[in-house]
Design goal:
about 400 residues; mainly alpha; about 70% helix; globular
């Protein structure tokens, strides 16, 4: 006799809890941990989610679903990245740990992709997890701020404290854009949340996050002609801007740059980009010293220290990051896969605009691509986790649409 609660068996509960912990709870493990320690925590959580997916009896999509040339390029990237650990200036244990993390990230993305093809009704649940994560961080922040009298004196821009406030904007942007485009049933519930997230993005000082979110919303608005959504986001932006000023400490560099330009009357692009042009220049110089295998995985922090920029962990551009860490062969192989995924997404954008969920996911995809040009989306573990989850949501939607067309 079938029980109506069969779907609530212990394996389903464990899997949903592990998935929730990985995506929604892991940002709260950031306090007190260095980036490498936080990466280890997230990798372990991802691995446990993959394990529970396996013991639940779900099936992984066969690798044959990938085109042959993509599989060959992936093999080339794997082989080249492993060689770069030994023939570059990498610290082998550190490089091996980082490379293992990349493999787990990709396997986790494939797990979510396989899950959504079999259980498409979990799409809203998975997409809401980053929004839940942002809510937990906001609640934690207010508790910490109001119950710790020394909170205003903390260096919020640097770990190990509550969270690296700069990179909190990555989560806030993802959560803001993953809220489904206006849906009458949830509109009034999303208004205060959208305003809070805009306030958090502006307060945290993520200039690339602010601009990327604005560009993504504007782009999707023009593509979908959803002017109601644009007006809604514009109002939420101004409300969020006001809310961000209620705190006496604002960590945005935008105001500093405006003041500097007003006093010097000179346009210094490197200063506007917080020294990124200088960082990119000496990163490329180090790449040319060993172009085949790169400067080494996790080597940038040493390079930046040698060039007078201590405390920088990544070159703030995903193209330079991959080439610097894996060399021209491995970096180009991985960049080709990313570029190919971008082209596929853009080619099939009209499919993603057929429902609110995938429209919002597509807008997040645009924003993260823009942020990755100037920030460390592909360096920090949680932002990579968000990105592979976003890819899984979009590619599974594309797979199901094509399957429906082929089997009407």
């Amino acid at each position: 006799m079938k029980t109506p609660y069969k779907h609530l068996d212990i394996y389903n509960i464990i899997f949903c809890l592990s998935l929730t912990t990985t995506i929604a709870i892991s940002p709260l493990f950031n306090p007190g941990f260095q980036p490498s320690q936080h990466r280890l925590i997230i990798s372990c959580l991802e691995f446990f989610t993959i394990f529970t997916f396996f013991i639940k009896g779900y099936k992984f999509q066969p690798a044959s679903a990938l085109p042959t040339y993509i599989k060959l390029i992936l093999i080339l990237w794997c082989f080249s990245s492993l060689l770069s650990m030994f023939f570059s200036y990498s610290n082998i244990p550190t490089a091996a740990s980082r490379q293992t993390e990349w493999f787990i990230h990709l396997f986790f993305g494939w797990t979510i992709y396989s899950l959504l093809i079999q259980k498409n009704n979990l799409r809203f649940f998975i997409q809401s997890l980053p929004v839940i994560a942002s809510l937990l961080v906001i609640i934690g922040f207010f508790i910490f701020w109001f119950y710790n009298p020394a909170a205003p004196n903390h260096d919020w821009a640097s770990p190990p404290f509550f969270i690296n406030i700069r990179h909190l904007s990555h989560l806030a942007v993802a959560a803001l854009l993953l809220i489904p485009f206006i849906h009458k049933k949830i509109f009034f519930y999303t208004v205060p949340l959208t305003c809070l997230l805009w306030a958090l993005i502006i307060w945290s000082g993520g200039r690339s996050g602010i601009l990327a979110a604005a560009i993504a919303i504007t782009t999707v608005t023009f593509l979908t002609r959803n002017w109601q959504q644009f007006l809604y986001q514009l109002i939420a932006f101004f409300v969020g801007s006001y809310l961000s000023t209620l705190n006496p400490i604002i960590y945005s560099d935008i105001f500093k740059i405006i003041n500097q330009q007003a006093t010097t009357l000179s346009l210094d692009l490197d200063r506007i980009l917080s020294g990124r042009i200088t960082i990119w220049s000496y990163s490329l110089e180090h790449l040319l010293n060993n172009p085949i295998f790169g400067a080494g995985i996790e080597r940038f922090k040493i390079i930046s220290h040698q060039n007078g920029h201590p405390g920088f962990y990544h070159p703030h551009n995903f193209i330079i990051q991959f080439l610097l860490e894996w060399g021209v062969i491995g970096g180009s192989a991985f960049l080709f896969i990313i570029l190919k995924s971008h082209l596929v997404m853009w080619k099939h954008r009209n499919i993603f605009f057929k429902d609110d969920l995938t429209t919002s996911t597509f807008s997040m995809y645009i924003a993260f691509f823009l942020i990755s040009l100037f920030s460390g989306i592909y360096y920090f573990s949680y932002s990579i986790l968000l990105l592979v989850t976003c890819n899984a949501l979009l590619f599974s939607r594309l797979h199901l649409f094509k399957e429906k067309q082929n089997n009407p």
